[in-house]
Amino acid sequence: MKRPTIIDVARHAGVSKSTVSLVLQNSPLVKDTTKHLVEESMGALNYVYNRSAANLRTSGTGLVGLVINDLRNPFFTEFAASAQMAFARRGFATVIANTDEDPGLQAQVIDSMIEHGVSAILISPAYGESSAFEQIERAGVPALQVLRQVDFRTDHFPFASPDYATGGALAAKHLIDLSARNIAFVGGLEDRPITLERMSGYEAVLTKSGRECRHFPGRPSRAFGREMALAMAGDHPDIDAAVCFSDLVALGMLSGFAEAGIALGTDFRLVGFDDIEEVSLVYPAISSVRCDTAKFGEQAAETMLAWIVENVRPPQESRTSVELVVRESSVGIQLTQR
Length: 338
Fold this sequence. Notes:
The protein is an alpha/beta fold and 338 residues long.
């Protein structure tokens, strides 16, 4: 007769495998009611914990995988640091992997994390064909998609992000209120879900005001932003404002317009997206949609901990609020100094 496993106990108790592991380790993170439920299932199934065998392998107890698509981007770095610290405060170690927007590398690091027995995976996924989520599903490891969504089976892989659509709408309305006539959306690769979501609020506001929507797609980088600023200065003088896909694009446009002799906040009005620290330190400072990435990282970690420790499954989709931080790049230097 086959000996019962941790997975059998988890199914019988209606909790996750990670929760059973924590009970076996006498973790204080598990509520007494949950602990008693697991112990009753162990008794009903005649499960015997082989502690010596468990000690021979790398236990997944207290270990969380954090998979990030681009740690070079300060937006994702801030999220990862905040999530890692939140896990640490609850006694969980974190293994962090940068996939560099490479779905093949993403599959490799996830496979390695699963082999090392992570209790859960928090993932900001790379776009493109990948077996990553199939690997996670086969392993039975809880996984939460954050900041961007690749797998739309949110019943299996819940998704959480800031409310990007509202952010795009706030930025566009702000520029219209400043009497901008032709407002472009700059950056973001075409047809990517995150690009479409950030653009959707911008498009809704411009359409309602009777203005034309103009998208200049491209990689969300400083280099692209600088290139677009120079192109607009020479080829699109009618465009007098822009909502950027990201702050990196906005920082590049700041440089390009400075090179072209165009003053931000007067000749051209600019709003970034993400509100990374750098946009408040440059001159002129850049208006930006604040996603409060640090707070979001902490909340994502707490959501994951509730799932693996207390079996409180996250909602299939959730959005956190955003706000517009107004600075010189959109309203001008003199107005902000009054």
